[in-house]
Amino acid sequence: MPPRNFSLDLGRTSNYICKSCLAHLRPVNSQPPQWLTRQASTARSLRSRTRRPATELKEKDPDPAEIQRMLAEDLFNGSEAKSNLDIKYYSENIKTGERKPLQTNEEFGEESAGLDHEVLSSIEDLERRMLDTLKMINSMEKEGKKEKAAQLRKQFKTTIRTQFRGKMGPEGEAYGVLRIRGSFSGSKARAVQELNHFLARDKVVEGGIPTHRDLAECWKYYSSARKILATNWKSVPREVWDFLFMVLSYDSRDNPNRMQHIYVLAKDMQAAQVPLNDAQQLLAIEAMFIEGWEPEAIDAWKRAVVTIGSNRETFKPYYELGVRMCALHGDTERAQQAADTLLKSSHPPNPRIIIPIVRALAAKKSLLDEAWERYRDMRTLLGDSMTLEDYDEIIGSFLTVGAVEQALQAFVDMMFSGAIDIRGRTRLPMVVGNHFFTGKWLKRLIGAGDLDGAYKVAVFLQSKGITASPVQLNGLVAAWMRSGAAENLEKADKLAWQMIQARLDFVELRQRQSVMKGNLTLYSPDEAPNLKDKEQEGDEAEFKCLTRATAETFSILAENYCSRRLHSRLQELFEVLKLAEIGPTTFLMNQLIRSHSQAGEAKKVLNLYNKMTQELGIQPDGHTFLTMFNSLSVNRLIQRVPSLSEQDVTASRKFFKDMVEAKWEFDTPELFAQLPRTIIFSMFKAKDWVGAIVACRAMRQIFGFHPTDALLVELVSGIGSLQVKTKRNTLRLTEGSRIIEQLKHAHRKRLIAQGHPGEEMTPEELVEENHALFDQIVFMKAKVHQVVIADLNEWIGEVSREMGVYDIVVKGDQEAISKYMKLDRQAIMDMESK
């Protein structure tokens, strides 16, 4: 582009043409290179014929007079009119406003590039000499003068790093000084400068291993500079292309878009007419295939058989790539030919290249036997070196297409080294057809995440007379539900209710047997498949699960329905639970209570709790009481209702009494952290101040609970959770922290007045301090400024009797404390450490 300040003189003529105009001229007869590209549409082809890239300029500039004539003909649509247009360029000093005419091309180049002609010439000369030096060193190494070459290389490297900030590549000077030469103007010229700054860093790639930052910034700067570089691809040296290819093609988890970047970079190198070496071409072909140009990639691979395929260094990766691409594309015949060529060559064979072929053949039912034979060939070639991962690949290939028998045979080969053949048998041999063996396979499939494959195995095994155990199917149902996908939730729900139906059928048969006095025979699970309709046998679409549901099945469904707030389905589940003659468990009770609480049915929560604990004799646990405290109105409603809060005081004290008297223990660190905190906050919200003091002192004895500094700040601030990050809460937390510091200061002054040395406090003294601060916070919240000890003890005595902890809080009876202890001391320490 010309400088911004110029003037038009229509009275003179000149043969001078600016470089910007020269850069946009197109040669008449030039065809774009065809490589790694699809055939464009007709409209796009027409556009490409009229818009030729700037890279197709001739080596030698045409005669200026000829250019002037061409421009005149173009401007006047071929008329014979002569152009009197003359353009003069000026450089304006922004501060003084003085204009200086530009007389020569050198002056124009200085103003465009921002550097004078001498500086540009010096830079180019320096780069040329440095590259010549590198070539000389490489030649010396080839001639055998390695010691002298190494000495010169070390000296050259030190000079460059100390005097010039030039990037040298991963191992030193292999790529030369990386810099994009040439001058660029316009709004996007800055992108080239940023790319040069990236290339000129001292440590872009250290030891040949790009970091995550290197990979991200390399693509960032290059993608930003692509458009401006496309106007002059010749300004990008080959060393820069190789370095960019090396970085962007680095195989790492930190480079997830590796193939897409290789594809774009290869297209740009093709546009710049920079030939790719054999290794780069292989990566480019693979990138083209992955980016969706499958037929074009395979055609490019075929054409490269004479060049890349005959090169000893690229022979093996060339044919391995061909096997993978042809197998994925469905051309199994060509894939097998490529694999046979590779395995019969003098190169060390890698029989695992057969795995993609097995997968491709198994996808076609007509070629299933051939897929099995290829697996046998691979197994023979690998021998004892065949790993569990290899078997998993083969098993997954057969399970994906529903070939369960072949998959089971491969699993049997893995377990028994190919000594047993089960294919084609109506019933499986005892060593295979048992719950232990098949259970191990189902467990392995579920653990690997192949849930659909595990279901197909369960259906196949039942057709062979083996019903899957409830433990395995419960695991499959739970895994489906954990995935969260709508399709998997539907599959899990269907299978679980089939298991429940099998349980109901069994209960009905048992009831009929008792009525008919032994004239009806109950079948065992292994004999149950004989009851199936012959027409439905082996039909997965009409599969009827014969594995009976257990309490775990109901628990899995209950937890899922509760978390998804399907209250009606949960009630239906409990109604069926009675018909299935499975007693309700504590877990099921907790889920139903939680569901009623979520639905806002507080009365039903209390009635259900009383009914199940008193009438049905279900023993509650810590999770039950956590759910009950969360069901209080102060924890459910945003706006407090005084009448409900009064009811919450009575209810919370009753829950606390039941919690102390019930026989249970903490089973998770989460429960150990949540339950005491929920109890304290519930009583604070209900303004049961004495109850909060009693609860804190009781939980200290039977839970090993001690209020932390964070909890004290929350109690003072009135914030339910430190996780809520708002401006208002931040101010409240700051004020709360200030109040706690003041209370601690006052408490320690009192200790010093009582004779404490005033040195650093012991852990036991810190615990006592926090309990004392807790009581002071309660007094502050209750707005009690002066507390009479006698009155306080009287209140605590009355409330502790109501909460069932009088012997623990008031008397300090060690026998009572040991009786109601919910966690031993060592377990408390372990959970606190977690």
TrEMBL record:
What spans are recorded as compositionally biased (Basic and acidic residues)? 53-62
Task: Kindly list the organism's lineage.
Answer: Eukaryota, Fungi, Dikarya, Ascomycota, Pezizomycotina
Q: Where is this region: Disordered?
A: 31-62
> What InterPro entries does this protein map onto?
PPR-containing_protein (IPR050667), PPR_rpt (IPR002885), TPR-like_helical_dom_sf (IPR011990)
Q: What is this protein called?
A: Pentatricopeptide repeat-containing protein
Gene3D superfamilies hit by this protein: Tetratricopeptide repeat domain
- The residues forming the signal peptide are none
Which Pfam families does the annotation name?
Answer: PPR_2 (PF13041)
